[in-house]
Amino acid sequence: MSHALEVRGLKKEYKSFCLDSISFSLEEGTIMGFIGPNGAGKTTTIKAILNQIQRDAGVITLWGKDNIKDEVELKNRIGVVQDEGHFYGHLTLRAMKNMLRPFYKNWNEKTYGDFIREFGLDERKKISELSKGMRMKYSIALALSHEADLLIMDEPTSGLDPLVREELLELLQRMIQDEHKSVFFSTHITSDLDKIADYIVFLSDGKLVLNEQKDELLDRHAIVKGPAELLSETVRPYFVGVKQSGYGFEGLAGDRAAIRRALGSGAVFERPTVEDIMLYYTRKENGHAILN
Amino acid sequence: MLYLIKKELTANVRYLLYGLGIFVVYMFIFAQTNAALFTTCLIISFYTVSTTNLVLDERYKIDLLLTTLPVRRKDIVFSKYLLILVIFVLSFLVYTLLFVVSQAAGYDKITALTPFSAAMGFLAISVFNGITLPLAYKFSAQTTRFVPFILFFSIFFLGSFLKEPDISGVTALFGNLSGGPFSLLLTAAALLVNAISCLITVPIYTKKDF
């Protein structure tokens, strides 16, 4: 499989934050969930991919081409949904679309019209009159109307109600039926990723914590619950993090097979969600691996 | 590039019309004085349009949208400079139309547009834009909002005092050039101001983090 996106050794330093040598790649025809707590560096990474910020080091390629040298050609193949739609509020949806349409070689008016109807958007409305959710839908309609091969989405579901979120996730799954299309999906609503992501990249405090296939990641880890006396000093190193209470403990183990062998049948082992993994690793990164 | 200019016009159409409206109103107000009518009105309308344009772009964080589009950053900057030409041409057409109409109606206070007036107007808005754009891109339009204000009043009052008969005195400094060549000199100066300003703004904008 070839890569739609490849990021190698990406560095960006600000006064109070540093994106520290991030590397990952997104295969064509897959959905990558890009997760991490607020301030982890997700938006900074996306901005670097889109050449909206100057990186201090690293290489970013899209379909093997440099994201700066071949910027115009590559951006014709990218659809972007930002956390806030940056549109002129005093314009109508139609006027804004007419403004953006000519920039793209492959604009498909029919596709756009279909999305506008599907999302229940009124093109005569001013953008400033749209709710956050409707604005996000409009942003998605624009991003999907120029036959983009890569969709980059920064927190696209945060303002959407559950029904529309579900519709969007179905839409993304439909989109990647075409094996040349890929989705890079930054979010902190990790339940969305449980449903659709093929890969998970997890950032925390500017560092890459996890980068692997979602199913492998969930299979490898385990949520372990058991009585407090099971949590001896010898088993603690198996855990990414542990929460203790008067009744017992609950923790995330990084190696399901190993922790099963260590604890035997005295504990309960469950498959974690992406959210469980993100929470435990974030706490570990912040130095709070063990909570009482 | 054409699409970027179209984008500027679409986004600012209301304010362009507003600016041209101001242009017309001030034409009649300043027609009673002996000021360089076209130059004065152009400065007033350009101030309105250009400052609104920068403020709107900043309010809606339009650069974050533009930098996702398949356009080069330097073309985004060029389009801002080309907007001057568009506003100039529109003002020129409106002025000429009103002059013809007013003459036909027997109102003779609106004087014919001279090459000097046109060139002076173009130079004035070029200086205005040439200073405000690099500063706005470097430090944000909000931070530097006092700059267009100061420039507006400086250029506006200077423009008001530049009366048509004064050219002979000014042209004498340039070896008794007639009005035509002197106007060309002013136009060349305006283009030079735009070119220098653009050379400063392009690297600021292309290296900017959004």
UniProtKB/TrEMBL annotation, chain A:
Key words of the record: ATP-binding, Nucleotide-binding, Transport
Signal peptide positions (record): none
PANTHER family cross-referenced by the UniProt entry: ABC TRANSPORTER ATP-BINDING COMPONENT, ABC TRANSPORTER ATP-BINDING PROTEIN ALBC-RELATED
Biological source species: Sporobacter termitidis DSM 10068
CDD domains for the chain: ABC_DR_subfamily_A (cd03230)
InterPro entries linked: AAA+_ATPase, ABC_transporter-like_ATP-bd, ABC_transporter-like_CS, ABC_Transporter_VariousFunc, P-loop_NTPase
Membrane spanning stretches: none
Domain ABC transporter, residue spans: 2-230
Protein name according to UniProt: ABC-2 type transport system ATP-binding protein
Family matches, as SMART domains: AAA (SM00382)
GO molecular function: ATP binding; ATP hydrolysis activity
From TrEMBL, chain B:
Protein name: ABC-2 family transporter protein
Pfam name, any one: ABC2_membrane_5
Entry keyword set: Membrane, Transmembrane, Transmembrane helix
Record's keyword annotation contains Transmembrane: yes
Coiled coil: none
Bilayer-spanning residue ranges: 12-29, 35-56, 77-101, 113-137, 144-162, 182-205
